[in-house]
């Protein structure tokens, strides 16, 4: 019986899940609603009515019946599906679902108000004369005793000229025996007969705890145009004697309904005494009708122990397709076969056989795992099904128009994921409707279509599942978010500077953050996006935000396809092994002993790792988990606790206290910041070096939770394994640093690390690591902007690496030696329909002629407004260099300086000087060129701390006729400016400079009445838009890239005119 | 002890030694007695959790019985054993110094727990069983695996 019930409930729930969507479509289409759709809903209600009648779930049956009545009126065009009708129906189906979730307590549910509302609704659409028929019963005689039916149903049967039969039926024997199930039975009945009532012999089937062997007699009252013989066929060929006609064209109905007969609708209108005594067992769904609301609130539900238990069993069953089961059976068979082979191989000690069996078992295991995983997969549609309703209700409340688009219902994910996704996705969807999308007037004023677009999409991508929630609303304003976070004290003002736009947008995930100025009852229920994030983290999901102000926001969630088996990296720390989920790992690196002091620094009380342009907080496994570091005692197996390291640990921060500068970091003045940074680097470094004195290499995993990345120092890396996740016991559940445990190949247990939990345990919680780390990252970023430049490497003679600044090279052409044409001491080649002058470094330096080389290339750049080619040889490479440029040692005409790249000296060529040397006439000729002429006599102030860039810019400005005064920092530039107050026409300044940076210089110029009107151009090696806001605030109107000669010159020309 | 005392008239108990004292627990609850085996330490775990171990594919939380009863700590010697006890669908390994034998508990000989005992120990006992010269403390399995809600 339990199995039958379970099966029925599973079926019913599946149908109920789709009904909501159907009802919403029906509402949308109104009077023109698709009859097929109404029929579909009606049919589900009908089947639920039948099944629940059979199981004695009277409350469910009553409700399904009334819903059916209303739907039938809709189908026969007696009623138009409007919002009110659909609200009631949605409510009814919600209630049905709740009751079916917990059939054991459904009988205690009190749906009086809802039933009354539905009845009132139905009767309001009936003509006056028929109104009474809703509440009246008609009695029909049968050989098995009188049968009472609602008059409205009997009337309808008479109208349609159908007959009513009473069929004795035994579900256990007649259905189950034939391999069907109850829901499908009632479903199939629908096509040919209408089920009016379902009478169960309650003395036999009184409770739900009966065993299967007993017959389950059932009397079905059906209305159908069919004849007895056909009906018998419909009911699995039962004996004709079990079909009793009650009413039909030939059988006149009993005329007058007797007045003393109790109206059946009593059950609908008055709560049964038992129902009153025992209030509803489950939470009522959202009440849409006012009456329903009050009565449901009155009956405050509290789940009983029984309810809990039955709920648990409902959740623990899973529907699996027969195909998968068959696959599993086959694989099991294969496995048995392989085991037998294995035994033989072992018994015979046959190496060859053994290895083939090994291969076979390997394959079967993989397949087995795959198929078993598939049984756990559920379609996303299960979660998405609720969303049209959620969005509809919410948008009605908020008075917004929302068009919800759902894509990818068929995408299947692990059952656990599907269940865990429901809440976070709902929350994000509500957020999108509440905060993301604008109201209709707002949208109109912005020129957007009045209907807000909301899209939720699931799809597979690169072994992961992606769920996107996208709206075309306001978008996230990064600055407003940052301001708000600062106001709420969640982050410090200083750290905002170093944050990129995605960083700022990710602030919404901080605990205690809420974007809406006023917390509404829609999304602001004390839980925020931080809870969403935490939930997703727990599922192994990562969230990304893509948002454009005014255009909308897209949240993208990346999820693993399954949770039960995850590919993980096994690491060990002090003899203990741990598993880190592969999805959390960005990269692995190993710091060689000599790198340790260079790459690890202590900032505040935290170690950080410098990795390219990033600064990542470093978490030492041993510290965060409280594992005592040990060392191998020489000459024995013993390991001793390494006390020395602990002592050094304590010493490091202490050293800082002696340094007042570093103890007071950065009051946002560049001067202090720089000093603090230096102090930070210098002071603890002694500590680190001492502490690492005996240390060998450090293995580091860069891990990420999606929004937070950090470095995790571990002992050693081992293999990557697919580990089976097993939950930790109740006593250990509170340890968020572990997400479970797994059993390794050798039978020992390893803990699986929870990367998000570990970081919060270590205190690294802010969005971009610790605030100080973010600050340092900003400075690292600035260092990058200042010192890193791109070079195009080529060779002059084979052993003579040379370079040109990449920005100055327009194209690279591979040529053959014979393409070069000589004319006196000048060279040209045919190029793009013209003649391209060629120069070589040897022309000036006199060393290393390459003209006969077969690896000839021409680097085309523009000098004095003309294209010129520089001859070089392969290999050609583009490299990023941070090394300083030496402008003295190798300085000579044509060579601007040298730098070291990969331990070799690289000469940096200067195209202007080369060209001048070979074609001294060009500059005189350029005199006619207005563009080159323009700078004549105009004084430009140039502040730039990098000697190389300063020299480069100065040179090309001077070549264009400008008179350049240059200064190596802002302070020097300022005094120079005061000196030449009236002469300077344009100021060009770098951003990051010692003493006084570009922003500060600009502010000073703007705030002094003598200089306030001067045009200022800021130059960087890359356009970083994070600084734009600050640049504007300091009074910088123009931004240029340092070596983009043409652009910078054009800008200077425009500003100086 | 009141009428709801779960100890029956004659009940089989598993007796074990813990920090020099004798203790016993309803033998029906003890699914098996195994050697300690290889434990994986769980850093950050409550004090009484010695580690976790694999028991035929299942993760078992190993509890130091002495630490749990607040009477000391179990030294893992060759005699030490784990009593595998299931509680609320979860398996625990109850680490004890030495398992003695299964005894027939005579309900009549069980005396109330003396109030002089430490509350942390007293609250986890059903009573004291006096047999011969020995005193055996009978553990209350219901209370034994009730953990504080918050950590």
Automatic annotation (TrEMBL), chain A:
Alphabetically, the GO molecular function entries are: phosphorelay sensor kinase activity
Q: Which residues carry this modification: Phosphohistidine?
A: 46
Response regulatory domain residues: 939-1057
Class of this enzyme: transferase
Name the GO terms of the biological process aspect: chemotaxis
Domain Histidine kinase per the UniProt entry, residue ranges: 330-563
Q: Which reaction does it catalyse?
A: ATP + protein L-histidine = ADP + protein N-phospho-L-histidine
Tell me the segments the record calls region Disordered: 247-313
**Which keywords annotate this record?**
Kinase, Phosphoprotein, Transferase, Two-component regulatory system
Report the function annotation for this chain.
Answer: Involved in the transmission of sensory signals from the chemoreceptors to the flagellar motors. CheA is autophosphorylated; it can transfer its phosphate group to either CheB or CheY.
According to UniProt, the name of this protein is: Chemotaxis protein CheA
Q: Please give the organism.
A: Lamprobacter modestohalophilus
